[in-house]
Structure formats: structure tokens, C-alpha cells
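FW: tagging you since you asked about this chain on Friday. Here's the raw sequence from the shared folder, copied in full. Didn't touch anything.
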Amino acid sequence: MIVKVILGILLVLIVLVAAIYFYGTSLPHEKSHSRVVLINAAPETLYDIAINAEAQSSWRKDVSKITMRPDQKSWIEHTNQGDIFFTILEENRPNSFSLEFKGQGFEGTWKGEFVASGNGTEVSLVENISIQNPFFRSLSNLMKFTEKFMDRYIHDLEIEAERR
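HL: got it, structure written out here
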């Protein structure tokens, strides 16, 4: 009897893992997410907060530590989910910046644009991400990891801008 229960549980687990894998193979490798928000701060302030990698561990709740690389244009973000390597591709202070990033199982670009609007700034963020592993694609799609990351980043950016 116990053997049948164990075999039944194993069969369910195998079917579940196979379903997650095949669901992931049906999803595109690349996807894009964007957010546009109005933040009550000057474009210069928001740009300086966003581009200063060394200070991000002091205001971003999901980053425990930043390790700058010798060129000062690239760094490693240490998070609970693993390390992410970033490189600045373009800086256009105070209007925009673009970054390239690579983590375990994913890579992509991140672009921020800042446009003065009334007493604040319209912040536009765009993330283009490529996830090769079907399991990671499934989990990312089901759990909305990239969307949650962007929303958390905006929330933390707003709080840091208010603090300044």
C-alpha cells in the first residue's frame, strides 16, 4: 500500500515537472516589460539616484550589497535571488540611461527615461529580458518575477526621492 502511494506521488511530481517544462517551451525566450509613473522629484534627482550603483544597496530593499568593478561602469548586485552583473551602455544625464544585465539563466537590457512634467518627472522604465531555460521561463511567467522586480524598484525609487 505504501509503495503504491509513493509511486502515485512520484507520478504526480513527474507529470507536474513535465507540465512546467512544456509550458516553458511554449513561451517566447524574450519578453519586454515597461512602466511609466509620475514621481514628485526633478529629473536630475531621479537620474542621479538611479545611476549611482554604489548607493543602491542603501535604498533598494532587494539589494543586499553592490560590488563595483574597476572600470566603475559595471557592478554586481547581490540579492537574495542571486548575483546580477550590470554594465552601463549609455548615459545621457539627466534624460536617460541604459544598462545591460546578466544573471543566472537570464540576460537583457534596462532603460530609464526621465522627462520633466509639471512639478515632477515622468519616469519610463523598459526591461527587455531573455530567459533560455524553459523552467525559468515558466516560473518567471507564472510568478511575474520581472514585473514584481520593476514595481519594487519604482516603489523604492519613489521613497528615496522623497527622502532627498
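FW: The longest helix spans residues 2-26.
HL: agreed, and The two ends are 66 Å apart (CA to CA).
FW: great, closing this out.
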